[in-house]
Amino acid sequence: MPRADARQQLAEILAAQCRFDERLRCLDGREPFDEPFGVETNGPVEPWELADATDEMLDHSSRYSPTPVRTVRKVLESCPTAAQDVSFVDFGCGKGRALLIASEYPYRAVIGVEISAQLAAVARENIARFRSPAQQCRRLEVHHQDAARYEIPADAGVCYFYEPFSPTVAGRIVDNIEESIRRHPRPVVLCFVGRGLPARDDGDGGTSRTGAAVRGRPMWSAGPMVESPDDPYYDAWLFVSDPEGRLG
Ligand SMILES: C[S@@+](CC[C@H](N)C(=O)[O-])C[C@H]1O[C@@H](n2cnc3c(N)ncnc32)[C@H](O)[C@@H]1O
Prior knowledge:
Blueprint: H1 3-30, H2 34-37, H3 55-60, H4 69-78, E1 87-91, H5 97-102, E2 110-114, H6 117-129, E3 140-144, E4 156-162, H7 167-183, E5 188-193, E6 221-226, E7 236-241
Parallel strand pairs: 1-2, 1-4, 2-3, 4-5
Antiparallel strand pairs: 5-7, 6-7
Bound molecules: S-adenosylmethionine.
């Protein structure tokens, strides 16, 4: 690509990112979360701003940006599994906002996996500081680890992905989840939130939508598409595996 075109493209990406962040600030203003609960989940963080960023992270990891609060609640309430029967896992939990919101539901455990030590530390601090009368689950864990290497707990039933990484990485995690279901048959819901930033091209036809990782896999049935109450960008796609028909 000629240099001027590349420069123009970069300028457009940066402008789109600024508009995106401004929109998120507005959404966060409508449903304040950080101040009332004494936490810090809102500021975006680029992979290259992380002191512990590796080449692998720069190639495959998305920036940190939280899911808007109302979208997380709507996605969790759209899952057909009973929260008290399963654990919730956020693959790429960042500063832990989705974990804190998930703890308002009676999950057995709420687990975050985060590749950046810096962000995992912020998530742990947020968990320690979080004070909400709505909190029902007190077993919250954050694992500093590449989510592709994380051993899936035998009771993981809601697996949450908000555009954390490329479909290549997501594919490895879905392999691990399928293996876990074969060893411990149970219903599992995959929640893929977000449409992906159009500028990323990781070999999947120009889209970075993580949900491409389940395409063509017979174990999964498409569940409801969840319209975000915040912005269509945050619409979510659910996929359900129910090997023993327990969800009726
Ligand atoms: C868009 S943020 C989502 C944050 C959080 N799930 C939420 O919804 O508020 C994506 C996060 O995934 C993390 N991430 C990227 N690649 C990862 C990997 N391979 N393993 C674990 N975390 C990863 C990033 O560092 C970032 O914090």
